Amino acid sequence: MPYMLWFGWLQGNARPEHWAGSWIDPLIPFQEIFVIPYLLWFFYVAAAVGYFLVRSKPDYFRLCAFLFGGMTVCLAIYTVFPNGQILRPLVFPRDNLLTDAVRTIYLADPPINVCPSIHCFNSIGVNIAIRRSELGRRHKAVRWGSEVLMVLICMSTVFIKQHSIADVFAAILLAVPFYFVVYRGAELARAFRPAPIRTRKVKFENP
User: Fold this and answer.
1) Beta-strand relationship, 83-84 and 18-19
2) Which pLDDT score is estimated for 147?
3) How does DSSP assign 10-63, residue by residue?
4) Strand pairing partners for 19?
5) What angle do CA 98, 44, 74 make, to 5 degrees?
6) Whole-prediction pTM
């Protein structure tokens, strides 16, 4: 997939020239418990894409347009404005299985190419797709479960110090135009589409 090749190249070659951060970040404590929703992101996105692929092609194509369109914009930003963060703790305040999981994430994913956060952007996209689908409209538990998981995933990125709060807000800002283009754009196009001209057959009788 071109996206993965592009992202992999950036991870191996990009050198941050801009640093993402906010005065709020130092006020957010490191909490390794949030590695659980952070890792659930992989299941959340894969499950939504797989479900809609099988059950609803229109929802699947809209979700893919949202995800891949937004990720392409993120990669373009990383390419033009290489960025990173320096929020990771040098020493973990505790030593347990969860901090071991965070340590593994740190080793596998260097703190570069962080703003906007793809983790947050994709979570927002999946939640929008679920809420606007027949599944979300008919099953309140699924709809609200998706809402809670989306929020926890976005929170997890800052609590395990993978992202700055600025990266989260950048992802939200990026999601807004994509929502209107992918979802509201089609509705507006249908609303302003000229009504079809109805014709009536006229029967002529011979005198």
Assistant:
1) parallel
2) 97
3) HHHH---SEE---TTGGGS---GGGHHHHHHHHHHHHHHHHHHHHH-HHHHHHH
4) 84
5) 95
6) 0.87
> 3-class SS at 118?
helix
List the structure tokens of 64: 């893919």
CA end-to-end span of the chain = 71
Indicate the residue type of 30. Answer: F
Q: Is residue 118 within 8 Å of 71, Cβ to Cβ?
A: yes
Nearest-angstrom CA–CA distance, 130 and 149: 12
Name the CA dihedral angle for 133, 36, 148, 162, rounded to a multiple of 10 degrees. Answer: -90
41-100 confidence digits (pLDDT tens): 999 999 999 999 999 999 999 999 999 999 999 999 999 999 999 999 999 999 999 999
Q: Give mean pLDDT in consecutive 10-residue pieces for the chain, a chain of 207 residues.
A: 77 81 94 98 97 95 96 94 93 95 94 94 98 93 96 98 97 96 74 58 54
